[in-house]
Amino acid sequence: MNASPNRYADGVMNYRQCGNSGIKLPELTLGFWWNYGEGNDYVDCLARMAHAFDNGITCFDLANNYGPPFGAAESCFGRMYAENFKAHRHEMIITTKAGYNMWEGPYGCGSSRKMLITSLNESLQRMQLDYVDIFYSHRYDGFTPIEETMQALIDIVHSGKALYVGLSNYPTDKLLAAVAYLRNQHVNPLIYQGKYNMLVRDVEERHFDVLSNLGIGFTAFSPLAQGILSGKYTDGIPDDSRAARLNPRMKEMLTADTLKKVQRLALIAESRGQTLAQMAVAWILAKQIVTSVIVGSRTIEQLADSIGAVHNSTFTAEQLLEINQILL
Ligand SMILES: NC(=O)c1ccc[n+]([C@@H]2O[C@H](COP(=O)([O-])OP(=O)(O)OC[C@H]3O[C@@H](n4cnc5c(N)ncnc54)[C@H](OP(=O)(O)O)[C@@H]3O)[C@@H](O)[C@H]2O)c1
Hints:
Elements (H helix, E strand, L loop, with lengths): L14 E3 L6 E3 L1 E4 L10 H13 L4 E3 L10 H14 L7 E6 L14 H15 L4 E6 L8 H14 L2 E7 L3 H13 L4 E7 L6 H13 L2 E5 L20 H4 L10 H17 L3 H10 L4 E6 L4 H8 L9 H11 L1
Parallel strand pairs: 3-4, 3-10, 4-5, 5-6, 6-7, 7-8, 8-9, 9-10
Antiparallel strand pairs: 1-2
Helix pairs in contact: 1-10, 2-3, 3-4, 4-5, 8-11
The chain binds NADP nicotinamide-adenine-dinucleotide phosphate.
The site of NADP nicotinamide-adenine-dinucleotide phosphate (NAP) has 30 residues, from strand 10 and helix 10.
């Protein structure tokens, strides 16, 4: 595969400094949660990844349990990487995570040292890599002492299997304790990954000031609320949608109130000359704290659409006010 020679040309992708670190991340990261497992054609997956790379997306977000089944997305990534992207390893930020359900038995879930280190070794094998760029603790699990999880992350960095560490889904007090432990041993947490979109905004209060004060980057997952903010559910649940095929729990989010908000937001997007999906991504990018938005595109058309957001991501004060009033 020949990567586009224009992928780093001006106007293709923007890159933002990640917190106070020396790393810049693309405004969009490609996410691998649902769309790289069974039922996804390898050639389509490769076309999406190539399109992302050709458009300056250098960051690829994985986790041990992405699929389905668990591990399948990492295996798919590994094949794409080994067959097509090996020569570009130094241009890529590749992440993975551990913390949620992965394998049966008492060690296959959670944030213990056993889980994190074993899981990363298995992830590296599936992804055909010697190291990842960012290894995340996927969540605070509610029972493993923060010291145990953080020491495992520190030892992983010292082993060379991850260049940086990140945290995801941590309550604020645990985040502060985790950062203090890591920094005390001279490992700087690079980035925090949290759910953030127009419909789910609790990280604004819980994490944004804390991260800004600590100089840690923020990357947003589920920017379209798993597709709801594309407007595709306005007239019911399409057969090929995530809610119909993969994640029936999404149906709980499809309330009349939410669908009405989505319809009103679509009118603003139209007046801005962009799709609702693009506006939803742009609205996140308009926040200064945000380093990158992780897009979970299922098709190349969706990915191309979302990439368009980086070229129209400023809002007037009136537009932001109007959006806020809709989201109240
Ligand atoms: N740290 C964590 O705990 C965590 C949790 C969740 C996700 N993540 C990461 O964040 C990534 C993104 O999350 P997500 O997949 O929920 O993101 P999302 O962008 O909110 O949802 C992706 C879904 O939205 C639809 N879509 C995407 N782009 C579209 C477009 N331009 N127009 C119309 N529909 C569009 C597709 O739905 P259809 O399939 O219905 O077409 C797609 O499957 C994941 O891949 C993963 O890397 C992290």
